[in-house]
Design the sequence.
């Protein structure tokens, strides 16, 4: 279409140029230009052989008797008066040219062509603007939802979603309703109008929504919450209306809104009031969901990792009345997810995904997919045909701590400090039975860290006891204690350890009620303003006297953990030295190596 309009425009321009050239064309014949006085003299002296008068141009041209051509410009009235007063010679040839009269269509042709050229130019500009901006001028209030064909080759089903068996069981009911709604209607049941998927980023909320569409074989409208909100008030509400109009035309279908907290936050909150455009969009969304006819066949699915900031009206029965928590998978779930993401990967036969699943506590589905991809990239980089356990282990460490920086120049003094720091962590963790076993120790810099001590749980637990939290703090402070005990000085290397230890101690006192002095009381308000910075928006519900006691209790927890780590490292100084010296030689110790050094020293 663009090519055709370009050809038409070029043709019009070419025609205009040709007409202009013809209208301005003049013969390049050599002629003598004279003024009227010279013409009068030649006329009187009878040297003029012929003359031609072009009345419309006031131009007189002709030939002298010596063969020279001439031309002069003179008003017609003056010329005729002169010829009347001075009759011409009998041998002079005279020609009078009347103004040329063109056909009416030819006279108006240049004007018409100019108008057509301007019309073509402006229409081309509008088309280009629409093409570049997605039709912004004409479709500004239209929904930006993408319609996914349920029958495409990349259809997602429940088989592609692993590690979420309970979540799939909850959603299977919706799939069944979309496939055969009659049995539910006959029973008088009302299927939930909206399903809210809540969970941390990367746990598979969007994948679950697409799997429902794939299983039910219905159209899937996908849009982000931020696609509704614009700087112009009313545009978001218009897009909501358009989205529901499209959904009703394609019923039964699924409408999926990702990151709904971008448009569904609480109304009228925050400093300076709310956001008019966002609140109007939310109001329209609430109205449209109320306007659904019962069992109309449109299922709303939304995803968010901030359910705490959503407006209560959005979560009441009749709107998003079913909430499904999509959490971080456990060991069994991670093994199933790894099996899905390793289908197209070439793994060595001896690799066991169950071992890798235990190696990745806290990983989400997205993390595990990234893990398998990183291991494949490492295998290619190392010119290997199969992905081995070395690549998988390295990929896990890269995701957790970053890539190794072997080229970084580290002084011998810093290497020694890092070795004792990491050895301090490892020894304290080994001596405190409630902590997870040490998996790997390294003094090779990774990311922002100069070294690391990695530990893995034997059994994953959903709860943390007070004694285990206290041991956790002692393990974090083991590096700082080792620096002070052996080097005789402290460094900035323990800053992150201290930050994490302080955070745990603060939560023990303020959130978990684990202080003997203050008792089982929480001092953190759960009504923080969702539009203001967390520290700024927190309401203080206790006195300054209690605040001093909280500070004292936090310091007490930290001091006790520090003294515990100091006692353990002082009593096991030989083990600390042995592990540190081995690290200076090998730079990295696996769990078996550490156990062997610990046992013999």
Sequence:
């Amino acid at each position: 279409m663009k090519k055709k309009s370009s050809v038409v425009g070029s043709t019009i321009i070419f025609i205009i140029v040709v007409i202009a050239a013809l209208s301005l064309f003049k013969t390049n014949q050599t002629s003598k230009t004279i003024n009227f006085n010279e013409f009068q003299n030649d006329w009187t002296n009878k040297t003029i052989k012929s003359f031609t008068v072009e009345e419309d141009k006031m131009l007189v041209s002709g030939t002298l008797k010596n063969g020279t051509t001439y031309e002069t410009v003179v008003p017609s009235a003056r010329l005729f008066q002169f010829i009347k007063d001075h009759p011409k010679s009998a041998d002079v040839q005279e020609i009078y040219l009347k103004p040329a009269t063109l056909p009416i269509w030819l006279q108006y042709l240049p004007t018409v062509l100019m108008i057509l050229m301007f019309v073509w130019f402006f229409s081309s500009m509008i088309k280009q603007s629409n093409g570049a901006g997605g039709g912004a001028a004409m479709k500004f209030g239209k929904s930006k939802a993408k319609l996914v064909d349920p029958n495409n080759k990349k259809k997602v089903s429940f088989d592609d979603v692993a590690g979420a068996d309970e979540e799939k069981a909850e959603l299977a009911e919706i799939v069944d309703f979309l496939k055969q709604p009659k049995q539910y209607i006959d029973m008088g049941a009302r299927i939930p109008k909206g399903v809210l998927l809540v969970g941390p980023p990367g746990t598979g909320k969007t994948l679950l929504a697409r799997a429902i569409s794939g299983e039910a074989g219905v159209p899937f409208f996908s849009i982000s919450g931020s696609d509704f909100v614009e700087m112009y008030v009313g545009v978001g509400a218009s897009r909501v209306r358009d989205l529901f109009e499209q959904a009703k035309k394609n019923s039964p279908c699924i409408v999926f809104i990702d990151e709904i907290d971008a448009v569904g936050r609480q109304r009228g909150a925050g400093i300076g009031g709310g956001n008019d455009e966002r609140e109007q969009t939310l109001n329209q969304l609430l109205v449209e969901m109320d306007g659904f006819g019962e069992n109309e066949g449109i299922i709303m699915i939304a995803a968010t990792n901030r359910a705490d900031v959503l407006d209560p009206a959005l979560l009441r029965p009749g709107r998003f009345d079913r909430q499904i928590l999509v959490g971080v998978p456990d060991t069994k779930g991670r093994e199933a997810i790894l099996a899905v993401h390793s289908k197209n990967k070439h793994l060595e036969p001896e690799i066991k995904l169950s071992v890798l699943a235990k190696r990745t506590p806290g990983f989400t589905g997205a993390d595990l997919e990234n893990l398998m991809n990183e291991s494949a990239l490492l295998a290619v980089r190392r010119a290997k045909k199969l992905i081995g356990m070395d690549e998988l282990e390295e990929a896990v460490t890269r995701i957790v701590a970053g890539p190794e920086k072997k080229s970084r120049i580290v002084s011998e003094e810093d290497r020694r400090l890092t070795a004792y720091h990491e050895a301090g962590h490892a020894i304290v963790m080994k001596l405190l039975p409630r902590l997870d076993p040490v998996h790997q120790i390294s003094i090779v810099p990774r990311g922002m860290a100069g070294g690391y001590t990695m530990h893995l749980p034997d059994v994953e637990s959903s709860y943390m006891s007070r004694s285990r939290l206290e041991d956790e703090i002692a393990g974090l402070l083991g590096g700082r204690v080792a620096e002070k005990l052996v080097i005789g000085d402290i460094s900035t290397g323990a800053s992150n350890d201290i930050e994490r230890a302080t955070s745990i101690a603060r939560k023990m006192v303020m959130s978990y009620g684990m202080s003997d002095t203050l008792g089982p009381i929480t001092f953190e308000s759960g009504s923080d303003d969702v539009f203001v910075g967390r520290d700024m928006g927190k309401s203080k519900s206790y006195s300054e006297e209690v605040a001093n006691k909280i500070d004292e209790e936090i310091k007490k927890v930290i001091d006790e953990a520090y003294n515990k780590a100091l006692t353990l490292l002082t009593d096991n100084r030989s083990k600390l030295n042995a592990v540190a010296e081995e690290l200076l030689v090998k730079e990295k110790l696996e769990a078996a190596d550490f156990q062997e050094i610990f046992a013999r020293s």
Q: What stands out?
A: Confidence is low (pLDDT under 50) at residues 24-30, 132-137, 530-535.
